[in-house]
Amino acid sequence: MVGYLLMEHFILLNLQNIDIGAAAYIKKMRKSGGITDTTMVPEKEPGDYLIRHGWVLLHNPHNYEFKVTADPTKSYTKSQIDFLYDYFMKHGMENKANELFLI
Prior knowledge:
Blueprint: E1 2-6, E2 9-13, H1 18-32, H2 46-52, E3 56-59, E4 67-69, H3 78-90, H4 94-99
Antiparallel strand pairs: 1-2, 1-3, 3-4
């Protein structure tokens, strides 16, 4: 599974198209007024743009270690922790679930 998480909103993306999916989401949200920040052209680094704006990237880049990538200057929201905890427990990753309480 690959995707971005903000609050309880999760966008599931295909690993090969993660930047395309992130860019399409940003474009859609800008058109609808959901994203008004124009400090960065999202087509260049759409994933980094989402992470800088509080999204969390869930990915398994090498199919052996599941990773959670977030902006180190931001705290996880309660909704993000709840989502991640439930996801990890459902998929047998109890250690990852317990790590959330060390954040």
